[in-house]
Design goal:
Layout lengths: L1 H33 L2 H27 L14 H29 L8 H28 L2 H28 L4 H29 L6 H12 L4 E12 L2 E11 L4 H16 L4 E11 L3
Parallel strand pairs: 2-3
Antiparallel strand pairs: 1-2
Helix pairs in contact: 1-2, 1-4, 2-3, 2-5, 2-6, 3-6, 4-5, 5-6
Length: about 290
């Protein structure tokens, strides 16, 4: 399952790199020829997408490395480190585009209308829609933040390019200020998306606790065992895209060591079967029931 996951992410990143290189070339060429600020912004977005797909490829390669003596829980956090890089790149790009688009709006810059602009927008929307469906399908199967970053990026691109198409159509009728406004809108959209990915990656790298729903599910599993008298000392820490869970169960002190550890082992397997749990460690504490 893990090998298939990493192979699928590798294919998704390669598809993203090839698709975005193609879009960067055609959008950048026509954008600069026609001086369309929204198309230039859209092409810059494709450049950031190439970098994002490249980081996905590298991050996936590192995170796929098995655990070793120096990394007892594997290299899974590489996914979040590279997602952090992707988000920072997106935020910096959005600020540059915001300045350029605002300048264009203030100077009342005009662009040369061309039907090639419309054709490129349609090609971009179709390409990104295919990549979005493909990547989101993989994300639902493997729950990887690298895939999540990529499918959100593809979805945003579909919306962004649709806005670009609208501004170009307005330009056909001499309404050029829409072009600068759309450029500003695109930059804000990229910023918000990048910030969301940054916060999610940051929280994991800072060992944010497990979500309440999963915690409650674990507690329900514990309560299913009548021999467990109490449960406490819960600790959660991310290990890549999954969590390490450690907690203590109190059992009757008269229970044999074999039976108490058999109970703990059974509970560990139940907890590890949950989606977000990679490893569970259950300590046994015998208590006096007299």
């Amino acid at each position: 399952m893990e090998d298939q996951k990493f192979k699928s992410i590798k294919k998704a990143s390669q598809a993203g790199i090839l698709g975005n290189i193609f879009l960067l070339v055609i959008k950048g060429t026509i954008g600069f020829i026609t001086r369309s600020q929204s198309m230039i912004a859209d092409s810059a977005n494709s450049a950031s997408d190439i970098l994002a797909s490249l980081m996905t490829f590298i991050g996936n390669k590192i995170s796929s490395e098995p655990k070793d003596e120096d990394h007892n829980f594997g290299h899974g956090k590489a996914e979040y480190i590279f997602s952090l890089f992707i988000s920072i790149t997106m935020i910096l790009l959005s600020l540059k585009l915001l300045i350029d688009s605002a300048t264009s709006l203030i100077k009342k810059s005009e662009f040369e209308f061309s039907y090639f602009l419309i054709i490129i927008c349609i090609i971009t929307i179709i390409t990104k829609l295919i990549l979005y469906i493909y990547t989101k399908t993989l994300f639902k199967k493997y729950n990887s933040i690298l895939l999540k970053s990529n499918y959100k990026d593809h979805k945003n691109d579909c919306i962004v390019t649709t806005c670009t198409l609208i501004s170009i159509i307005f330009g056909k009728f001499g309404i050029y200020w829409i072009d600068g406004v759309v450029g500003i809108g695109i930059s804000i959209w990229i910023f918000i998306t990048g910030l969301g990915i940054f916060l999610e990656s940051y929280n994991v790298l800072m060992d944010v606790s497990l979500d309440e729903n999963t915690k409650n599910t674990i507690l329900k599993l514990v309560k299913e065992h009548n021999d467990i008298k109490n449960c406490y000392n819960f600790y959660y820490t991310p290990m890549g895209y999954n969590y390490l869970v450690v907690f203590t169960i109190a059992v009757d002190g008269n229970m044999s060591t074999y039976e108490s550890h058999k109970l703990a082992n059974h509970l560990e397997k139940d907890v590890e079967a949950l989606d977000k749990i990679g490893k569970a460690v259950v300590h046994v504490h015998p208590v006096n029931m007299d």
